[in-house]
Design a protein that fits this description.
The protein is mainly alpha-helical and about 475 residues long. It has 14 helices and 2 strands. Among the domains are: about 110 residues, no CATH class; about 70 residues, no CATH class. Strand 1 and strand 2 form a beta hairpin.
């Protein structure tokens, strides 16, 4: 009994302590931002191998799950056999090894193909820039033959622009490339640190992938021990939904971008587009960014092709438009599905915000993150509407003026002038409390004034005291 009596004081003391501690932490974060930023960078530098391991394991895990569940499990099911524990461990280790080898070869092939192509493209542009400028000028002359004044102005602009661009390429770009290569050797320490973190992360990721079921089980056990059954189930469902949104979107987008890059390479090779491999890699990589990716990748490719063959640039532009229509209306929905439930407007806004805060990485993860936030807001809104006995169906609120408070039916919209005395009423807590008190006591709204204490009531009712006051 004694302990129960002092329990509320103990809770109040703990609450006060936590409030004071949170205030002190907020004050420190607000007025010591430089120290906090430095400490954050130091912590991230220490945890970089672990972060790399988590990202690498999260990316590789769907591949291993697909092979184990869709291929190996079906092979054993057809033979009516059960895979032993030892066989599962051996298969898991071989799959991790083969996935690592495949990723290394793919990365090496991409770098070995793209880097020489990029440097050769830049060298050819610098060496043959005058020829490319003449090609553009001749193309403009053929197109504007019937418009001599416009042709003269265009030729003048092309000559001025080509001269400035040629000077920039020879005097600025090439020295910048040389300085970049020289500075690259000076950044050897940073490169060694980066590759060290990647190597340590790859080693840690092997252990994570090999024992991932055990680690996930330990996390679930800790969740239930801290939060109990009901809240533990809720947290685990939320985490499963977040994983579903992120993994489904990212894996699907990577597969979609690989297919788009292959289609782009095949078609550009057939129509004779210059630098077909370089252009296809750029289109495929930038296609990972939703909505804005195709435009970001197509613009530099079109400018690169325009310098060599303007007619090919026009063909490439038409092909990119058709390719993105095919991707947006057929291929993308087939691979990704309609799982996000996010409107086009919110996708654009989320990509802009994510790119502003976190650059390209923010633009990639913006859509699944926006889908999760929309789900949270939608579920919260549904619970609040159910509490007020209102429907969640969006059609109920279409073309609606307001809701009748008695029947709770939607009143159709009609154009009318709203009285200014009827709007912007913000009743406070005391007013709501007074109204509820009046309603509970069943008093009429126009009840006469009643004095606050008995002394004023007796004074008003005593005629002698009132006469003395008048005198």
């Amino acid at each position: 009994m004694k302990l129960d009596r002092y329990k509320k004081y103990f809770r109040a003391g703990v609450t006060a302590f936590l409030v004071i501690a949170a205030s002190l932490v907020f004050y420190y974060l607000l007025f010591h931002q430089t120290s906090v930023r430095t400490a954050f960078h130091n912590i991230m530098a220490i945890l970089s191998p672990l972060v790399a391991a988590l990202i690498l394991a999260y990316v590789i895990s769907p591949i291993i799950n697909f092979i184990e569940q869709r291929i190996i499990a079906r092979l054993y099911a057809r033979r009516n056999a059960v895979q032993s524990v030892r066989s599962k461990k051996l298969t898991r280790g071989l799959l991790i090894l083969l996935t690592y080898v495949g990723m290394i070869f793919a990365l090496y092939g991409l770098i070995a193909t793209l880097i020489p192509e990029l440097f050769s493209s830049i060298s050819n542009i610098v060496m043959n820039f005058s020829t490319y400028a003449d090609n553009i000028q001749n193309f403009a002359t053929k197109v504007l033959t019937n418009y001599p004044e416009l042709q003269q102005s265009t030729d003048q602009y092309i000559s001025t622009f080509s001269l400035k661009l040629s000077n920039w390429l020879n005097n600025d770009l090439m020295p910048m490339l040389r300085d970049f290569l020289i500075n690259l050797s000076g950044q050897l320490v940073n490169m060694v640190t980066f590759f060290k973190n990647i190597l340590l992360g790859a080693i840690v990721a092997i252990y994570m992938l090999y024992h991932k079921e055990k680690y996930i089980a330990k996390l679930k056990r800790a969740t239930y021990s801290l939060l109990g059954l009901e809240h533990g189930n809720s947290v685990i469902r939320d985490c499963q939904y977040i994983n579903q949104e992120f993994s489904g979107f990212l894996v699907g987008k990577v597969i979609d971008s690989i297919i788009i890059g292959i289609i782009c390479y095949l078609v550009t090779s057939l129509i004779g587009t210059p630098y077909a491999l370089l252009v296809s890699v750029i289109i495929g990589v930038t296609n990972i960014i939703p909505f804005f990716g195709p435009f970001l990748g197509a613009v530099p490719c079109i400018l690169l092709i325009l310098l060599i063959n303007p007619l090919q640039a026009l063909y490439f532009l038409i092909f990119v438009v058709l390719l993105q229509q095919f991707d947006g209306n057929f291929l993308g929905p087939k691979i990704l599905g309609e799982t996000t439930g996010v409107s086009s407007f919110l996708i654009i806004v989320s990509i802009l915000i994510g790119g502003g805060f976190m650059g390209v990485f923010g633009m990639i993860i913006a859509v699944p993150l926006c889908a999760i936030l929309c789900t949270i807001c939608r579920n919260f809104s549904g619970r609040r509407l159910a509490k007020h006995a209102l429907p969640d169906d969006l059609d109920f609120y279409m073309q609606m003026d307001h809701i009748d408070p008695e029947t709770r039916q939607a009143i159709p919209y009609r154009k009318k002038k709203v009285d200014e005395t009827e709007v912007f009423h913000f009743p406070g807590y005391r007013l709501r409390k007074a109204i509820s008190k009046i309603a509970s006591e069943d008093l009429p709204v126009d009840a006469p004034y009643q004095p606050a204490n008995k002394q004023e009531e007796e004074k008003d009712s005593d005629p002698v005291s009132s006469e003395n006051d008048e005198e």
